[in-house]
Design goal:
Radius of gyration: 15 Å
Strand content: 25-35%
Oligomer: single chain
Largest sheet: 4 strands, antiparallel
Structural class: alpha+beta
Distance between the termini: 35 Å
Number of helices: 2
Order of helices and strands: HHEEEE
Number of strands: 4
Helix content: 10-25%
Shape: globular
């Protein structure tokens, strides 16, 4: 398994390129993982640019990776820009979720992010509870 959050992001991007939904689900944290994943065959992924990383190293337990993924859909070029959060559990990194657009900036994650404690970690109380869907 990838040793850092950034390398997990890169491996997940490769899985999107290969239409490997099983790997994407396997590397998705159980707290937020969907039951199934259907990938759009009309999208061809072209390039991944890592914009920044925050924590997510060998000795960290959480991390953030901001990226731009370039694709073509029905011959039209597009980009997906996202700030993704990752957690390491039992020495394995998992994708947790994407920061909503209104928080998608170069600012550090807010301390009061729903579902995270003051240091930005999912707490034991949160495990098994569905993540908040309406963050407005």
């Amino acid at each position: 398994m990838p040793p850092t959050a950034e390398w997990l992001m890169r491996s997940r991007y490769s899985a999107f390129c290969r239409d490997d939904a099983q790997y994407l689900l396997q590397t998705w944290h159980p707290l937020t993982r969907p039951e199934s994943l259907e990938l759009d065959p009309a999208i061809t992924w072209r390039r991944l640019d890592i914009v920044r990383t925050e924590r997510g190293g060998l000795l960290d337990s959480e991390g953030v990776v901001q990226f731009t993924a370039h694709y073509r859909e029905n011959g039209i070029a597009g980009q997906q820009k996202e700030v993704s959060r990752f957690l390491k559990v039992d020495r394995q990194w998992y994708y947790l979720d994407a920061v909503p657009d209104r928080l998608n900036s170069r600012q550090p994650l807010p301390a009061a992010w729903p579902g995270w404690n003051l240091r930005g970690r999912v707490t034991a109380v949160d495990i098994g509870r569905p993540p908040p869907r309406n963050l407005a």
